[in-house]
Amino acid sequence: MKDNNRKCVVCNTAYSYCPNCDEQFGTSWKGSFCCESCRDLYLACVRYNRGVIAASELVRIVESRGVDDRWQDSIRETVDKALKEFFENCDEEEKE
Predict the structure, then answer these.
(1) What is the residue extent of each domain of the chain?
(2) Are the C-beta atoms of 44 and 57 separated by less than 8 Å?
């Protein structure tokens, strides 16, 4: 297996991937993500963009994971959009 033969679609980190291990251990997500945390963040962003989860849920996931300067632009834009929506909703609730 080659070292650092993949780049994470979320944080752009180079990592090693073995398709044979995928079959043996059932970690097919390793083909795109360096870790489960990046996979979970990506899936949460997809769900938010599709309207499956609310902005507050994505914000909660980001808070538990932490913000990373290495995030790809598309992830950062989705998180920024969710944060904006989350805080706008908080402001509206305070006004009521």
Answers:
(1) 6-95
(2) yes
CB neighbour burial string for 2-32, b if at least 16 within 10 angstroms, e if fewer: eeeebebbbbeeebebeeeeeeeeeeebbee
pTM of the entire predicted model: 0.82
- List pLDDT tens digits, range 13-70: 999 888 777 666 666 788 899 999 999 999 999 999 999 999 999 999 999 888 888 8
Check if the beta carbon of residue 45 is closer than 8 Å to that of residue 71.
no
